[in-house]
Write a structure and sequence with these properties.
Layout (H helix, E strand, L loop, with lengths): L2 E6 L4 H11 L7 E8 L2 E8 L2 H10 L6 E7 L14 E3 L4 E6 L5 H10 L11 H13 L12 H11 L6 E7 L2 E10 L4 E4 L4 E4 L11 E4 L4 E5 L4 E5 L3 E3 L4 E2 L15 H7 L1 H9 L3 E2 L4 E2 L8 H5 L3 E6 L1 H18 L3 E5 H4 L10 E7 L5 H12 L4 E5 L5 H5 L2 E4 L12 H20 L4 H22 L2 H11 L4 E6 L3 H16 L2 E6 L17 E4 L6 H13 L4 E6 L3 H6 L2 E5 L7 H19 L18
Parallel strand pairs: 18-19, 18-20, 20-21, 21-22, 23-24, 23-25, 25-26, 26-27
Antiparallel strand pairs: 1-4, 1-10, 2-3, 2-4, 5-6, 6-7, 7-8, 8-12, 9-10, 9-11, 11-15, 12-13, 13-14, 16-17
Helix pairs in contact: 4-5, 7-13, 7-14, 9-13, 9-16, 13-14, 13-19, 14-19, 15-19, 16-19
The chain binds fructose -6-phosphate.
Fructose -6-phosphate binds next to helix 9 and helix 16.
């Protein structure tokens, strides 16, 4: 969602802050700001709009200083204005802070603070933290004025503030009277510290650190960090001073560069063959005709006893979970339920001890998915994460899991993470199938299908130019239907989501036969239907649904197997993709649907990598 950066060292802080905020732009935001400490004064610069505006403002009026924090804001409380942008000031300019997350009890706190005489400069929930902290700091009671520990008043004030908040926060704070210190704190909103030589970096994820350091410290919930150029001290709410592990940051700065591509989304679409190879690497065991995973942390005997799966996720990851449901039920014959994480977290479904929960998440930070995982863990169910971002909160909190290894996904619209998630789902289906009744021969056949997949996806990428022409033909339409059956129903949902999120066109995904029960009323000559109709078990059934649309004058774009003449004679436009086994069809069919969304968005002049209102990593509820 929003992004946080911080710098303390001997260089100009704004150099890292601006570069870091640019690297975090992909997360989605609508305003930005920085604060530095220059000659004992807090220097704040904030602008609504792009980081470029902030950069221009800083050129006009530079903010000097080698300690500072910065923020990109995605509006939750109050519109995107300069005033609502972070940082927010507390007291008589004694501190400034940036905040990710949501403070749920901010109204009560604000009322109290206004009575106390505080004047608010913004509509945000975050500003209450700045005022509360200033009041706590001014208290400086006898027992915190401790000569041995000069940070005691600071730590006490921060802790006394945080206990008053309910909600989630990632906080980075600078203080006029501690000019060479940043305090970072987290509860439910990620924060990391990059360890440099005589300098430290703060960020809400690892991407701003790439190229500056490969040493990273992940802050955990209820921890606050006191960070100076030379030291990191971590204090836990209940345990007092705790140590911190320095881990290896696995992002290569070249992986987050655009290279010759105009947009991250296009780059990531083309990275899919490699992402799939990486998701498969080392995980196929031909001797046993099964899949192997290093990190499930459960024995084969324990996994054998699993009688039911719950897959939970949001958005595109939820669609990958649906693909997984079809795969696991077909290949492993184990019942699967797919739950929206935002619903599961507040439900109390009757699950027995033989249920295994998988949380699917590209970022590993989606707050609803994290909350659902914690709720299931609390109830004693083993939890697994299927994650792309190494070291993310969900990856660390789950009992075990599988990394996608798709490489950083920067485009807001998820592409390669989706196909990599589907691949991991197929590996799980193979693995659990082989634990039960899937034969050795069937296992080998599935392995052969998976091994052939990257090359099939490469060929599907060759549809790019053709899909571009189709996109220009339909770019003016304002409604689309996406229709498919069985494995391709989730692919239809995902195709529709891609189109709506980056081109702002209304699109609905439906099981192809279900459209007769209502959505068919939408069909007219200006409402194209995108059919996913490769040859397979329900091929003729989907053709029948396609004819129903044609009979009502609706234009049809069809994704078909190479050489399919039957559908070519019926559809207005066809996109041919290589033939694959039924369970892999949603992966191959998704490629042209990603192109379709991308090129239509371009035709309509939309900002593909930074779609309006969206955030890459949704860390608020
Ligand atoms: C759509 C998209 C979102 C995410 C969703 C979950 O293109 O990217 O729908 O899939 O916000 O995010 P993760 O997978 O990071 O939990």
């Amino acid at each position: 969602m929003c992004g946080i950066v911080g710098y303390v060292g001997s260089n100009e802080a704004t150099d890292f802050l601006l570069e870091g905020l640019r690297r975090l732009e992909y997360r989605g935001y609508d305003s930005s700001g920085v604060v530095t400490i220059d000659e004992g004064e807090l220097q704040i610069t904030k602008t609504a709009g792009r980081v470029e505006e902030l950069s221009k403002a800083l050129k006009r009026s530079p903010a000097k200083g080698s300690t500072g924090v910065g923020h990109t804001r995605w509006a939750t409380h109050g519109p995107a204005t300069n005033e609502n942008s972070h940082p927010h000031l507390g007291g008589d300019r004694i501190l400034a802070l940036v905040h990710n997350g949501v403070i749920e009890n901010f109204r009560e706190i604000k009322q109290r603070l206004v009575q106390h005489g505080c004047v608010f400069a913004s509509d945000t929930d975050s500003e209450v933290i700045a005022h509360l902290l200033a009041i706590e700091l001014e208290k400086k009671t006898e027992d915190t004025l401790n000569e041995i520990d000069p940070y005691a008043p600071l730590v006490a004030a921060v802790q006394n503030t945080l206990v008053q908040l309910s909600g989630t926060f990632g906080l980075a704070i600078v203080f006029r009277d501690w000019p060479e210190t940043i305090v970072a704190a987290r509860l439910g909103s990620p924060l990391v510290i990059g360890v440099g030589e005589g300098e430290h970096f703060i960020a809400s994820d690892g991407s701003p650190l790439a190229g500056h350091t490969d040493k990273i410290v992940y802050l955990a919930d209820h921890e606050i960090a006191i960070v100076t150029a030379d030291a990191i001290r971590v204090v836990h709410r209940d345990q007092g001073d705790v140590g911190h592990d320095v881990k290896l940051l696995e992002i290569d700065s070249t992986e987050v560069e655009l290279n010759e591509y105009p947009h991250y989304m296009l780059k990531e679409i083309f990275e899919q063959p490699e992402a799939i190879r990486n998701a498969l690497r080392g995980r196929l065991d031909k001797d046993e005709a099964t899949a192997v995973f290093g990190g499930l942390n459960l024995s084969a005997q324990q996994l054998q006893k699993v009688k039911r799966f719950v897959l939970t996720a949001c958005g595109t990851s939820w669609h990958a979970s649906l693909v997984g449901e079809y795969m696991i039920e077909a290949l492993a014959r184990i019942p699967v339920e797919v739950e929206y994480a935002s619903e599961l977290r507040y439900r109390n479904p009757p699950l027995d001890t033989s249920t295994l929960l998988f949380a699917l998440t590209q970022s590993g930070e989606t707050i609803d998915t994290l909350a659902a995982l914690r709720e299931m863990k609390r109830k004693g169910h083993p939890t697994m994460a299927i994650c792309n971002v190494v070291g993310s909160t969900i990856a660390r909190e789950a009992d075990g899991g599988i990394y996608l290894h798709a490489g950083p996904e920067v485009g807001v619209a998820s592409t390669k993470a989706f196909t990599a998630q589907c691949v991991v789902m197929s590996l799980l289906a193979l693995y659990f199938g082989r634990l039960h009744h899937l034969s050795y021969e069937d296992g080998l056949r599935i392995i052969a299908d998976l091994e052939a997949l990257p090359e099939k996806v490469e060929r599907a990428l060759e549809t790019s130019n053709h899909v571009r022409q189709i996109a220009s033909k339909y770019a003016n339409c304002n409604n689309f239907l996406y229709l498919g059956r069985q494995y391709n129903f989730p692919a239809a949902l995902e195709g529709a989501l891609k189109l709506k999120e980056i081109s702002y066109i209304h699109a609905e995904g439906y099981p192809a036969a279900e459209m007769k029960h209502g959505p068919i009323a939408l069909v007219d000559e200006k409402t194209p239907s995108v059919f996913i109709v490769p040859r397979g078990a329900v091929y003729q059934k989907v053709i029948a649904n396609l004819e129903e649309i044609k009979a009502r004058g609706g234009p049809v774009i069809a994704v078909v197997d190479e050489g399919d003449h039957q559908v070519a004679d019926l559809a207005d436009d066809i996109i041919e993709v290589p033939k694959v086994a039924d369970f892999l069809q949603p992966i191959v069919a998704s490629i042209p649907l990603q192109f379709l969304a991308y090129y239509i968005a371009l035709e309509r002049g939309c900002d593909v990598d930074k779609p309006r209102n969206l955030a890459k990593s949704v860390t608020v509820e």
